[in-house]
Amino acid sequence: MNSKKSKLVHKIYDKELVRRVVDLAKKIxxxxxxxxxxxxxxxxxxxLGDEVQYAFQEELLGTGHAVMQAKKFFEGKKGKxxxxxxxxxxxxxxxxxxLISKSIKNKEYATLLTAMYENPTGYGRIIRxxxxxxxxxxxxxxxxxxxxxxxxxxxxxxxxxxxxELFRAxxxxxxxxxxxxxxxxxxxxxxxxxxxxTGAVIVEDNTEILGVNDRAQLELLTRVLRMRINSFHMKKxxxxxxxxxxxxxxxxxxxxxxxxxxxxxxxxxxxxGENCEIGPNAFIREGCEIGNGVKVGNCVELKxxxxxxxxxxxxxTYLGDxxxxxxxxxxxxxxxxxxxxxxxxxKTKIGNNCFVGSNVNFVAPVTVGNDVLVxxxxxxxxxxxxxxxxxxxxxxxxxxxxx
Length: 403
Hints:
- The chain has helices spanning about 15-25, 40-50, 65-70, 95-105, 145-150, 165-170, 185-195, 215-235; strands at about 10, 15, 35, 55, 80-85, 110-115, 125-130, 135-140, 155-160, 200, 240, 245-250, 255, 260, 265, 270, 275-280, 285, 290, 295-305, 310-325, 330, 335, 350, 355, 360-365, 365-370, 375, 380, 390.
- With about 400 residues, the chain is α/β, with parallel strands linked by helices.
- The protein has two domains: about 5-205, Spore Coat Polysaccharide Biosynthesis Protein SpsA, Chain A; about 215-390, Hexapeptide repeat proteins (UDP N-Acetylglucosamine Acyltransferase, domain 1).
- α2 (about 40-50) links the parallel β3 and β4 (about 55).
- The model has no long low-confidence stretch (mean pLDDT about 95).
């Protein structure tokens, strides 16, 4: 990555790669999560804290060696263990659930997630017998010319193992390969030699198993995730005018018939109702809840803001830590001044059916009642009762220019 940071703490859509993989493990119902760490482990631990357990790999001696470091966490346990990679962050939970389900249903001791690649250079090849059973996996550097030419099925590196048989077999692997490493793939060969049933699930979408090794691949995965998320919302009835320039983060909810204009960013956890119009060039940050029929227009930024139905925030506005009622119009250039020198955050509350003129500053904490008109250019520092006109500006004075 050419970085002072661990690869695993680089982000896609504001979420670290390793955080995405741990969240994935949670979504598939894992009872226990063990993260194997080595170089720059402190950075990974800072991201994940005490919500996982850690195994330490002091020497980088291969994937099998990494799993060996986690053995103590599984002693005496039965069931299944799923092996994931911290730099393969966009696998769908449904894909892993299918992997686990097949492993249990078919009573397989090892079930691999594989993929079909027209050009599989760089990947380990799946070796099957005449009946289609998996005999083993040969790594790129150990494959012979015929294997490299004819085998298109590759190993993603994602597995579902029987816990007891995995750690029994892993004690038998040796670093007898071109890399001098302990390959986790040798476990498949050992199980096959002992007559233990193994199998595979071929992933339907090869982009799910893409990994990150440099900044270019990080950007590629961001693009893949962007299109996946945008496609999801479009299928749910949301119009996205330009999916190439619209960035909708994970876990956003958008109602049908809402239109998203180009160059719009909507961050995680945001909820937007039906029949809204968002953008262009809007930035909707965390903690926002937007009702039905709302317009959030050009160059508007929202943060931790709730906007009720049919309110319009047409352009050039910042609303942070704010609640706006229904049927309001917020004029161009309006901002909430919610940040103090003591780094405290205060709220601005605006009632229903209010009209706020252009270039208004709300200095929080401040509450504006229902049916209020705020004159353009005002700086509001005190609460405004219902059905009032608020003006907070100096009277214009015109003087002669000095010559």
